[in-house]
Specification:
Blueprint: H1 6-28, H2 32-45, H3 64-69, H4 78-103, H5 111-132, H6 136-151, H7 155-168, H8 176-183, H9 185-200, H10 203-224, H11 238-246, H12 253-273, H13 281-295, H14 308-316, H15 323-336, H16 341-354, H17 357-363
Helix pairs in contact: 1-4, 1-5, 4-5, 4-6, 4-14, 5-14, 6-7, 7-8, 7-9, 8-9, 12-13, 13-14, 15-17
């Protein structure tokens, strides 16, 4: 198997960075999501309320301890802080791609080809991630590191990493049943210890009652802003799918729950059947990562970047895949990876996005 040439890594990193930076400058002029984290970090340093209605669409929606994680950026000027985070995000992108490549077992394709094809399918999500200043790359590194640790028999390390991932984004909880199945109760106990520590740590700055108030405010913010996000184009969750099809008032939580109840066992099936396979973790993680934007009511399409190892595995096993499943993959990536306004133009783009077609593509 060939190794990735340094020139390929350099080219990929530069292209991703340049594309994302151009998008960020042309469309917004700032890393809007990163500014949410930086604002929350400044409030945390001053022990001020983190969750405020006046922040509108850009309310802080993460657990309180994450605001403290971002405090190194709070004292810096906006330009310097954004430049540092953007550069760090590009480095994390390269790191996540490398980890994803390591996760794919018994590769059929050369590393160079696998990287190029994988990034072709996920480039839209990666560019959005960088342009918005998001934290999904950091989450992906932590979770994939946990998966690789569990695969190597280091269950405690896997539990600690998944626990830390919950405070980056609670989406990490989707891996808890898998962790219990693969690494046992001791790994889940390690995860629980991290969760307990992270929940209580902000009390050092806010006091016990203040920390409880923060947690209550976090819950109200997350649940209270969900309904306003369901009809947005980029939302590919089950809840958004039903809202787009039936209307936001008619979208039944029962339908969302039913879709989730069907998808979860399908995604978990490889874990039940793949124990004799060495090593099965890439497929298991890829399937569970695809669940994240489907289950979360605020499941933006760029969350699919978390499933990069799964995309790489699909590409690598293309020749081994029967044609009916190849057709499903082609249809799926066509309406998820390439649902781009400049490619489709307005009528087709709005039909695809308003019809929740990317949700179906993710399922495919």
């Amino acid at each position: 198997m060939t190794r990735v040439r340094p020139g390929v890594w350099t080219l990929v990193t530069l292209l991703l960075g340049a594309g994302a930076y151009a998008l960020f400058l042309v469309i917004r002029g700032e890393l809007v999501d990163f500014e949410v984290y930086r604002t929350a970090a400044a409030r945390a340093l001053a022990a001020e309320p983190l969750y405020r209605l006046e922040d509108g669409h850009y309310q802080f929606k993460y657990l309180p301890v994450f605001a403290f994680v971002m405090t190194p950026f709070a004292p810096l000027s906006k330009g310097l802080a954004e430049g540092l985070w953007f550069g760090l995000s590009v480095v994390m992108a390269a790191w996540f791609v490398r980890l994803s490549l390591v996760a794919v077992p018994d590769r059929r394709l050369s590393d160079d080809r696998l990287i190029v094809l994988g990034l072709l399918l996920t480039g839209k999500f990666l560019v959005k991630e960088l342009a918005f200043g998001q934290t999904n790359l950091l989450l992906g590194i932590v979770l994939l590191g946990a998966v690789l640790a569990a695969q190597r028999g280091r269950g405690l390390a896997a539990g600690l990493l998944i626990g830390a991932g919950v405070f980056i984004k609670p989406y990490a909880l989707v891996l808890v049943p898998w962790l219990l199945w693969v690494s046992g109760p001791s790994a889940v106990a390690a995860l629980s210890s991290v969760l307990a520590a992270g929940v209580f740590l902000p009390a050092a700055a806010y006091g016990w009652t203040g920390n409880l108030d923060l947690l209550a405010d976090w819950y109200r913010t997350v649940t209270g802003t969900t309904s306003t996000m369901l009809l947005r184009h980029e939302n590919i969750s089950f809840a958004s799918m039903w809202a787009k099809w039936l209307g936001p008032m008619e979208a039944s939580p029962m339908l969302t729950a039913a879709a989730s109840a069907i998808a979860i066992p399908i995604a978990g099936a490889p874990s039940l059947r793949a124990r004799p396979v060495a090593p099965p973790a890439c497929l298991e993680y890829g399937m569970l990562a695809l669940l994240v934007p489907l289950l979360s009511p605020q499941g933006w399409d760029y969350l699919l970047i978390l499933a990069l190892p799964g995309f790489l595995l699909l590409v690598d096993r293309w020749r081994d895949t029967p044609w009916p499943w190849r057709a499903a993959m082609i249809g799926g990536v066509a309406v998820t990876s390439f649902a781009i306004f400049d490619l489709m133009r307005r009528p087709l783009y709005e039909f695809v996005m308003n019809g929740a077609v990317p949700t179906l593509g993710t399922l495919a």
